[in-house]
Amino acid sequence: MLHVDNLSCQILKGISFSLEKNNNLTILGSNGSGKTTLAKAICHLIYNDSVKIEGKNVAHLSAKQRAQYLNFIPAKLSIYDEYFTVWDYLKLNIYKEEQANHLDTVLKLLKIAHLKNSRCHKLSSGESALLLTGGAMIHQALYTILDEPTANLDQAKKVTVYQLLKNSLYFRNKIIITHDLNLAYKLGYNILFLEEGEVHYHGACEPFFEQNHLECCFGNSIKNVDGNFVVNYDETL
């Protein structure tokens, strides 16, 4: 179990929730609501002593132990070595010998096998996003937190990533940060909705997407069109 108890740091105010094994979570909220800050705090990239995993305080774990329990995948790939390749990056995620056998499979699943020897700094934003996801698939931490995994992808690649997130073979337990309400709805994970650093909803997916509740969270900026959640550009200021 992942347990967060009264976490307060930076903009976060008393965040508390638990996530059982074999359950997944989607974190939603407006820009600046604290989604990425929460992810970093869970992984101890921001110091705190409010997070426990399997009954162990994350603050007391070694770096190697934390890496096996928790993996935070940022929204943007940052590689500063201009000669560092896609293959080099994927190898960084190996901490058990057998994981090396999965590199080619992951490249094929993400449809980026042709980029195997490409330099990371030459990748497009969408290709970089897929590479980040691929690294997480190889790493196989107990809990993987992916920050906006579909934000820079074309429609076909979004479907590919969605299918991988739905399939329990490639990630053990998932926490997804996204602004994509359709992705959140289709995944069907429990929802944690943040507003100004506080939890304003934590519960099942279906109740969150009821129209009355959507209006409480987003005003009239979102409308449901045959089960698809679209921006209501007709809303007046």
Structure description:
The protein has helices at residues 35-42, 63-69, 86-92, 103-109, 125-139, 155-166, 181-187, 205-208, 211-218; strands spanning 2-7, 15-19, 25-29, 51-53, 56-57, 70-73, 143-147, 174-177, 190-195, 198-203, 222-225, 228-231. It has 237 residues and is α/β, with parallel strands linked by helices. 32% of the residues lie in helices and 23% in strands. The longest helix is centred in the middle third of the chain and has 15 residues, at 125-139. The chain is globular. A hairpin with a 7-residue loop joins strand 1 (2-7) and strand 2. The chain has nine helices and twelve strands. Strands 6-7-8-3-9-10 form a six-stranded mixed beta sheet, with helices on both faces. It has a four-stranded antiparallel beta sheet with strand order 2-1-4-5, with no helix packed on it. The protein has a two-stranded antiparallel ribbon with strand order 11-12. The protein has a single domain (2-231), classed as 3-Layer(aba) Sandwich (Rossmann fold), CATH 3.40.50.
